[in-house]
Amino acid sequence: MAxxxxxxxxxxxxxxxxxxxxxxxxxVCNVSQQxxxxxxxxxxxxxxxxxxxxxxxxxxxxxxxxxxxxDIPLDALEGATRRILCVDDDPKIIELxxxxxxxxxxxxxxxxxxxxxxxxxxxxxRPHLIVLDYMLPDINGNVVCQRxxxxxxxxxxxxxxxxxxxxxxxxxxxxxxxxxxxxQKPFDLDVLTARxxxxxxxxxxxxxxxxxx
Amino acid sequence: xxxxxxQARARQVExxxxxxxxxxxLSAVAQKVLSAGSHDEVDIGELTTLIEGDPSLTGxxxxxxxxxxxxxxxxxxxxxxAITLLxxxxxxxxxxxxxxxxxxxxxxxxxxxxxxDAPGHWRHAIAVASAxxxxxxxxxxxxxxxETAFVGGLLHSIGRVALQIVLPDAYARVxxxxxxxGVDSAPLERELIGMDHHAAGKRLGEHWGLPRELSDCVxxxxxxxxxxxxxxxxxxxxxxxxxxxxxxxxNLGWPGDYGPAPDVHALAVSAELDPALxxxxxxxxxxQVASRSATLGLDKVTGSELMLESVLRANARLxxxxxxxxxxxxxxxLQRRVLxxxxxxxxxxxxRGLSEVMAAVGASARSLLGGTVAIVVAQADxxxxxxxxxxxxxxxxxxxxxxxxxxxxxxxxxxxxxxxSAIGGQAGEGFRTMVLLPWLAGCLGDSGELSSSAAIPxxxxxxxxxxxxxxxxxxxxxxxxxxxxxxxxxxWGSAITAALRQSDMxxxxxxxxxxxxxxxxxxxxxxxxxxxxxxxxMTAGAAHELNNPLTVIKGYGQILRKKAKDSELQEPxxxxxxxxxxxxxxxxxxxxxxxxxxxxxxxxxxxxxxxEAVKLARQRTxxxxxxxxxxxxxxxxxxxxxxxxxxALAELVSNAAESETSEIIEIxxxxxxxxxxxMIVVKDHGRGMDAETASHAFDPFFSSRPAGRxxxxxxxxxxxxxxxxxxxxxxxxxxxxxxxxxxxxxxxxDETDEPTGEGLLAA
Lengths: 213, 763
Known about the structure:
The structure holds two protein chains of two kinds.
Chain A: E1 19-21, H1 22-29, H2 33-42, E2 48-49, E3 56-59, H3 60-69, H4 75-78, E4 82-87, H5 91-102, E5 107-112, H6 115-124, E6 129-133, H7 141-150, E7 158-163, H8 168-176, E8 181-184, H9 189-200
Helix pairs in contact in A: 1-2, 6-7
Chain B: H1 4-22, H2 28-35, H3 44-52, H4 55-68, H5 79-86, H6 88-110, H7 118-138, H8 146-155, H9 158-166, H10 168-181, H11 185-192, H12 197-208, H13 212-220, H14 234-249, H15 264-270, H16 275-295, H17 303-349, H18 354-369, E1 374-379, E2 386-391, E3 397-403, E4 407-409, E5 415-417, H19 428-444, E6 454-457, E7 466-471, H20 475-478, H21 482-563, H22 570-594, E8 602-604, H23 606-620, E9 627-630, E10 638-640, H24 642-657, E11 665-671, E12 678-683, H25 691-696, H26 714-724, E13 728-734, E14 738-745
Parallel strand pairs in B: 9-11
Antiparallel strand pairs in B: 1-2, 1-7, 2-3, 4-5, 6-7, 8-10, 11-12, 12-14, 13-14
């Protein structure tokens, strides 16, 4: 997922871009470039000019603000795939997640094996959903969950806890740390997919809308 | 010795030794003679000069020497001549005797006390001295020289004089005790003073610088000859020992010992002396003693007078002995009676109930004390009822009664039950007439004999109990000895006390047994809980560790199933996934069994719980279960954890459903009419269980069914849940007759509810 070169003619993945040209912004907003330029010049869309030239540049956050303010859907900006971060210290489980979710074209999957990496990945990968194991080697899942919830830009990120713990009290505690759902290991593949679809507002493909917990 | 008594004793001995040291020492002449290693080294000229320098001493020495050998008497006219004719030893002995005698008798005068017969003592000393001399003469050529033997005999009991001088009071006491007990004084001296006169005499001898043979003679003459060390002067000691025995047998003088006189013959034999020769000495002895006594300045007595005196003395001793024997035999007879009575009583009363013991006390009192009345009264504790037993002439129980203690007015003015123990107090007599007798008259009827009878309190060892015997005989007359009275009363009192306590002990023992079994049960429960806790921790860890690989197995099983769609691999892949899930469920069940959630009791309708249970059972058995409920007309709400109870009952219903019956499972609710416990009975009409199966039915993983059906945890889980809620669960089953599982819950009613007066059964 290398940052694409903006000057090339290859299709650009706008979902990972930090700075947008007026052309790109027009593409994302599905309006003409002229409209963007007008808004930029009138100050309704703020940005900066490239030093030593007159090219306008718009930061991602400002573009999102602008789109939300004008009820423009963010779909084009976010891209079609949903990014899912799977966190588990068991490499076999990680492999299983990659096999289940990686084969699904709707999802883009990244994995890591501990809480520290999970924190870093939320910055670079900006996942839509995190599948979080509770027992991690460094920081426990509930702490990871709390820290994510403290960050405003991740307010929309969904979190599913997956754990082998069987104490009802512990499950309650996990949910209180800010998780959206909980799945008991060993989970059912279809149930996992259904829960993810539900949380991300996707249409069900497996046909199972819900399953056993 | 480190005991206080031992220290005091040691100090006393030190004091005796110190005082012995302060006694006057021998004269210069005697010291001169003694300081020479042996008589052979003495300068005869100097000795003569020294003795003759003291006219009184000279006179006495010459007089003594003259009498020592009657054949030469007249020829001994000077010290020098005496030495020539009799030898140096004889003169030295004579001089030494006179010296010691003078010294001690003068010191003694000042401290003469009762018990010590000073003239008698010296006469005894002279008698032993003379006898020793005669024995030595009769056995010429043996180890003991007659002259030395004389001095040894004379000095043999100087320790007695020494002790009497330094501790007059204590020694007088020793002698009195020795006399009253009829024993020798030496053991008493050791016991009461810390040192006997033999040891004291040895010390004094050393202080004076007496030759070793004389010191040893003073010290060891009372020891058995055979036990003496093989020293050169063993013969001398033995001679004095035999002489002393002879004088005691002949009662010559006052020996200071009151024990039986030693057997002179045996003494002589053990000392290798000739008994016949010694017997022959007795005739001469009295004369010798009389003559020597005169020489030493004692009262002048003739030989016959002395014999008479000794006979009188012997007579007096015999009479005294006779008196003692009579007294002892009388005492012995009474003692025998009391002991027999006490023994009989103990035998008849041991280990029996209170009334039997009281009857035994009465019978014992009757037989020992006589009289016409014997009533025994006892009270277990202050405030407890009084119990009385009267005994007839034959010792059988005539009447018995138990009644509340009579009320008396306490210090505060409040009436309180009279403690029977007051009969032993200062106001015992008043208590007898004012409280005890009226009570007895009221209980047993007054035959007129009561008022004249004495109430003898029995000791109850401060247990708070009280006991008394009423007899119309005088205790002091029947049993003059205080010891006997105490023995008997203590035997009676302790038997009654023991019987009173026995019933307490029985109750206590029963309670103890109850507590013990409770404790044992608690211990079992604790052990069970502990093993459950351990299982809980283990299953929690196991669940976490196992669920990861099971997730992988199940996950890939399902992926495989999807990819193998419509192929023959689909079903095996499905089975792999299912098995993984089953294994995970099993661990979860096991964990829930070991570590179930805390029950949260709430007020719930019983019917709701039963319905929920049936619903759960249907789910589990895939609807293969039909039930019928038998309920009382009205079911008050129960306070319990509805979820846990429903789960427990569901297990029972599922289990009943698996009993291979087509008949309906009955769920019956009732309350135990005895203790209002709630009972829920789940009954099937299936094949039942044999005893072996029933006894293991609650064990985890136990199943009478072929392996693979169910986890075998159902009944174990039901039991665990019910017990968690403080209830019990029991199984009653007979093979072919079906099974009844009963859940019993106590404390199920809502105590905060107003009692409505209608229970489950009342409706």
